[in-house]
Amino acid sequence: MQPYRYLDYMSDAFIEAYGRTLEEAFSNAALGMLSVMLNMEKVEAVREDEIEVEGIDLENLLYNWLESILLKVWTDQFVPCKFKLKIEKDGEGYKLKGKLEGEPYKREKHGYKTEVKAVTYHEMSISKEGETYKLRFLLDL
What we know:
Layout: E1 4-7, E2 13-19, H1 22-37, E3 47-55, H2 58-74, E4 78-90, E5 93-104, H3 107-110, E6 118-129, E7 132-140
Antiparallel strand pairs: 1-2, 2-7, 3-5, 4-5, 6-7
Helix pairs in contact: 1-2
């Protein structure tokens, strides 16, 4: 199973990510987004960081997750490449906790492909088809 693919869309990045679990699909969604921005093949897992994100529903959790990854890259200057996530129902909403493995951002190593201005709710969907979760989301470039 491929982790993600880019779908045709006029001027933005439309990504479809897959996983056998919701956690795997969320991890692949982050990799798909990061690959729009950086040369992910060059990122090494040399440092660990933690992350915790909440959402009122799964779409809101996905939105907040991807926004948190953008902040890790541009605010913390940390590029994650591996994810160990746990998603749980938390009262009325959802909570994602996990560990990120990656390294500090270095433009000369990781490059800079395209600026992702924002994650959007437009075209966002989360579904399960058979044994596979499928996440779709649009990035404003």
